[in-house]
Amino acid sequence: MAHVGQVLSVWLTMVAACTPRSSVQAVNEPERIPVVLSRPGDRSAVGAVPTTASGPLMRKPFHVLAKPTGPICNLDCEYCFFLSKEDLYPGDRFRMSDGVLEAYLRQYIGSQPDGEVVVAWQGGEPTLMGVDFFARAVALADEVKRPRQVLVHTIQTNGTLITDEWADLFARHKFLVGISIDGPAPLHDRYRVDKRGGPTYEKVIRGLRILQAHQVEVNVLTTVHAGNQDHPLDVYRHVRDDLGVAFLQLIPIVEPTEEGGVSERTVDPAAWGQFLIAVFDEWVRHDVGSTFVQMFDAALASWCGMQSPLCIFRETCGDALALGHSGDLHSCDHFVDAAHLLGNITTDSMIELVNSPAQRAFGQAKSNTLPVMCQECSVRFACQGECPKNRIATTPGGEAGLNHLCAGYLAFFTHIDGPMRIMADLVRSGRFADEITGIFAAAGRNEPCPCGSGRKAKVCHGR
Question: Of 114, 182, 333, 434, which is the active-site residue?
């Protein structure tokens, strides 16, 4: 699924503060919030200091999305921005060679601290490489990892090519698989079409069911766009109830046009906020601790005073890079262009490219270019202007760099403030975030909303 920079694998390193009771390890240290990673792993140990041509560099975690087929995909999703990247490599076969594969795994795994190391694959459609390629990748990764490293393999796919052979590979090596589904068939098929413009929902669901039959851990990635923005609960309940998937990512589609506007597929800012609010209200009343929505878990980390696990909500970025099939390393999945090409890992050191002045400047620019309006905003701590790729609007005062989705994020983060404060207090006191469902369930519709707004529940979080 090429349009997403924050893919499934990022979730592996995020705070899952709203986890089931059985997997939460609560502590009561004043300087530390009781949290748990979505998969266990020793993240405290640091290995030896790697040495490069420019001197020693401390091992600091960073994230790489590897795209073994580049932008090539068997579908033709109308909003996919990555398909056009084919123009960067005219005449190319778009297949990662074994030489690039080895350079990637040796350099990336070698540069990571001890503990969990996420090896992430995306596209285009990565399964076009075939099962044998990924079998070799897993074997090589196991060969080069250090004893105190734990590999976590992830892949983002459209699901249409999944077979029992794929599912067997994923199950044996405990892959975390993300599948892109935009809701029930009519909503999914609005823009997610094949090369002939035909529907893809049934093929995707067939792949999902094969994965589930093999007990592969699955996450659903849903893009929110003009075609499904008015159906938040239809989308959420379809994933939760009909598909039986407990992990959901929500990604807004924002497509700038050459004329300075946005495409007709772009989600409306106000609709984006209301979509998140509707899903949150359903989630906070019924599903905390049983269904995991990446956006909400990331928000809770912010309300707990922690750095967001998602780079889009951090003050700075630059630690989530994109690796193409040729070995070219770019600053970010959303900035795969000549201006953000850092180098090629077959001739350059990956860790030096990650730590290069150009990449550090790219990451710092996220904060340096934040409009004054955003700097003074009450929800800046949770939003931080979101992703630079969406900062295409201007403030009422005429300052450039305002996020196109600003109105939606302001409404959403303001709406969830009360419940987030409750959950953060629960977590800090050594209790569990999922206790909030009981708090909200106990409030009658005509009683004051537990969030503290002073409004009746039926017009606040109990709608």
Answer: 333
